[in-house]
Every structure is written in structure tokens, then in C-alpha cells.
Amino acid sequence: xxxxxxKIRTVTDAEDIIVSTLYDMGLKGAQIEDNVxxxxxxxxxxxxxxxxxxxxxxxxxxxxxxxEKGEDGTLEVQGRKTDVDSLLADIGRELDGLRQFCDIxxxxxxxxxxQDIDWINNWKQYFHQFYIDDILxxxxxxxxxxxxxxxxxxxxxxxxxxxxGKHETTQLCIRQLKKYVTPDTELLDVGTGSGILSIxxxxxxxxxxxGTDLDVCAxxxxxxxxxxxxxxxxQFECLIGNVxxxxxxxxxxxxxxxxxxxxxxxxxVLVPLTPVAxxxxxxxxxxxxxxxxxxxxxxxxxxxxxxxxxxxxxTRQGEWVSVTARREEK
Length: 330
Description:
Blueprint: E1 2-11, H1 15-24, E2 31-34, H2 40-45, E3 60-69, E4 75-77, E5 80-82, H3 84-99, E6 109-113, E7 130-132, E8 135-139, E9 153-156, H4 168-180, E10 186-190, H5 196-204, E11 208-213, H6 217-228, E12 236-240, H7 247-253, E13 258-264, H8 267-280, E14 281-293, H9 297-306, E15 310-317, E16 320-326
Parallel strand pairs: 8-9, 10-11, 10-13, 11-12, 13-14
Antiparallel strand pairs: 1-3, 1-6, 2-3, 4-5, 7-8, 14-16, 15-16
Helix pairs in contact: 1-3, 4-5, 8-9
């Protein structure tokens, strides 16, 4: 199908009112582009496969609205047939009305027709099979090549919301897990996403894994990836909730239960997570962290030491850091 994109240049303070106004006239699903820094809550809910810092906030925002274009060239908004010029004029009038009582900045509108795109699956063209050391990571839509038969293969379908394993932080965690997983390992994976770390741990020989995540989509992603890799449902449980702030989730996760707790999350989340992770670890258990940009290394190490853990190893890849620590045996 084809879409017409109406892209409005405005200011960040006017984002909400413009989105609300155009929503009322039938334009839904706005795409917002700005350089506003993430809030603490947004950082807590983000996965780590993101740039550590974006451009400086300049107060400018771009709002894009997409309208499906029919085979006859017409557009449809709220069941009403229209065309590009008419809809452009309607949007312009709404913006002119908003100018009367608030600053919307430039307010210019660019119109662009997209190509036929499968919005859900188009991103797959950028993700192909690759190696992490001797492990082949392969997306669900590709086949294992004959020369790779017999190697450890992780079949992964990250979906549109989760990482693929290519990020340095994920790879740092995988290497540490490979060192510490044993056949008796009970693993807690905080921020499990598509389940990469837990599934690989089970493939390394771990006994059981439990993953937690804030995103409800994680449960489905985990289930699909477990099935793709022959992981039985009873081997890997996924809980949706905040293990840092929700006591119910903490109780369901359990206390002094895990041989390994792994967390591939941003440093800002690792600091409040660490005391909770310590409570979940068995005595002698291992805490593997990543998602730490290099200038936050000492902050995370400080939180780990303050929680009573002993740092045993710090590994690096690019500008990212992984810190591994152990709970005392006593």
C-alpha cells in the first residue's frame, strides 16, 4: 500500500497540542522527532541498543502523520474521502488556529508520498546472520548455511522492539555468561527483551532461567524464540513487571535463589537494581552487568561495592563496559 506523509516542523513545547488537535481531525499515530533528553523513567524503560547520547536539544520538533492512499489516488480520513491538497489545507487551518494562542514555531508542512512498504517487516533487510565468537546468530527468516552445520546456532527473531545481539553490551554479557554458567545454574535475566541471554545460557547448559521485563511484548518474543531454539517452556519463565519497584515481582522472582543475575541495562537503572539483585543472588552468586557507557563505569562499580559485592572482572568492547561481581560465600 502507499502512504502520504504530512511532516510538520514545529517546536517541542507544541508537540502535544498539535498531535491532539490533528488526532481530533482523524490523523492518528504521530511520529515525533526531537532532541529532548530522555527522562529517568524513559531511560528505565529503554533497552540498551540505543546511542548513549543524542544531539543537543534545539527546541525543534518534526511531527509526521501518515494517511493511506487508495488505488484511485484518494485519501480517507475518518471514513471521509479527500485528497492531498484538501487535507493539506485542513491541516494548515488547524495550525493557523493554534497560532492564535500558542507558539508553534515555523509550522511548515512538507508532503511526501512513500513507496509501498511493509512497515512491520521492512527493517529485516538490515539484520543478517553473524557470529559472536563461535556462536552463529541467525534471524528466523534465514537458513543455516551448509558450512555452519554442527555449530552452536541461536535462532532469533527480535521483533521490532528488541535488540538483535549485535550490540557490544549484549556480546559482553554473552562472553561472561559462557564463563560462569554450569549445569546447576539458576539464572535471573533482568530486562530480558527477546530472551537472547537466557536462551544462550540454557544452550550453554544452565538448568533454568527466569527473565523480567517492563514491555508486555517481551513475553511473546521470548516464547517465539524459545520455540525456535528448542527451549521447553518450563526451562524459561518470563515475568512482566518492574523488579526494582514492585514487591510482588520481587517476591515472584524469589530471594537468594539465583547462581547468576545478569542485567544488560543502562547504568542509570543498574544503580537502583543492584541492591535488589544482591537479594536475589545465592551466597557466592555472580552478578553480570553491562549497558554501561565508559564514563559511567565508576558509578556502577560504586553501587556494586556499596551493595556488598566484590568486583571480580571488568571487560570492555568499544566504549561499553561490563562489570562482573560476586556475592560473598559467608
